[in-house]
């Protein structure tokens, strides 16, 4: 949808749906948001890949903007003083050249092309040379082992020296009901879990069958995300959570492969929805793979700005967003190899800068505010995982995390959402505050996509810290739900994790500016209170939060 140029008046926050209430929020400049996104997503920043020249440029730019905004450095301590960054050691793995991949069915070999039928990730188990010869293939359903649900897709099968083939999402996805929360994805449906479980089961490798609807993205996203450089946090025993070979295969290829092995893919998929399912070997079908892997330990960085609290500086409210994107990768149809990441997530990074400016202009809050731009989100939430595992400021005294990822740069909406809808008091406060702008909350419209596990609030949430990831609304003031859906569908199909995610001159950023009023107000209210929001009593994260209760006395 083409959004008409807006006046300077509209660029101010009087664009709020209830103009009389605009004075309750800070002055958020839509023009500055646009400029920051334009710069950060320019070709000069080379797709903001971790440990590249693009990272150096990103850090330099964001730090300069935070400093100009009036923030103080809040990163690692050096000689008793805070730096602007937190060092994040990462294991970087990259396939050398083009991998040799093939399947053989009943003695008939078929070469596979990287990025076409298959998308193989660089080994992250510590291996530097992959040489798999005729490894048997075993279909293992959804690849789930969930004792608390009395569910085991593996049934004791010996996967040593074998490649498991599994489905994406979890068994409830298509039926909408069952043991895994219905339509909403559980963590068992995430591809990260499936690789980890394959390693625990002793598999040589794991291939996930891609289907667009249950994955919630197309093959282009899978290809672009999995055939470039891989990163992981540095682990003592990487093979404990990574099989040697990790990858995806196209659904059509999987159907044909199963058929040649005398199996019916759809029938087996139906069986996999039941707890009585047992693994099935693709008789006569094997996989071979040969490629070398460059593996090295590098250091990337989280960027950290801070405002010290006036009364209780040891208590912290965190705003977060990831600064990284996919860097330089496979060319698209136009030959473009730079994955600019304008929406994902130059928008969130720009939001951090502008929120920092708003807080710096206001009287100091009672509690401290941290503005955390994390690295390697696109590699598996690694920057936020590192911070949450080695926090600069104690998690027990972290009040809340308000994360921003891929905000809508168009005009304002009448509603907003969050990634997932886990019950917690922080969400209740966000919903109540939004009423000041006549904004309605809609629960995650695609809980089956597992967005709760796909953004940087999750590493905090699983450690008990109240955390949400804010999502732009889809009921646009200019065009309603129809226009919102059109924009979202086009983005997912044509831009998400593709070089086409680029800044556009007709983006007004007025909706994003208004949304930042809301997020500012929620954070400010928390920072000027003595409240400690918690999870609902039924939440799986409540116990972890309660375990740190003594830190807050």
Automatic annotation (TrEMBL):
The UniProt record lists the keyword Metal-binding: yes
Keywords: Aminopeptidase, Hydrolase, Metal-binding, Protease, Signal, Zinc
SUPFAM superfamilies named among the record's database cross-references: PA domain, Zn-dependent exopeptidases
Protein name: M28 family metallopeptidase
Residue ranges annotated for the Peptidase M28 domain, each copy included: 302-517
Lineage: Bacteria, Pseudomonadati, Pseudomonadota, Gammaproteobacteria, Lysobacterales
Signal peptide, first to last residue: 1-22
UniProt-listed CDD domains: M28_like_PA, PA_M28_1_2
A Pfam family annotated for this UniProt entry: Peptidase_M28
Source organism: Lysobacter panacisoli
Domain of life according to the entry: Bacteria
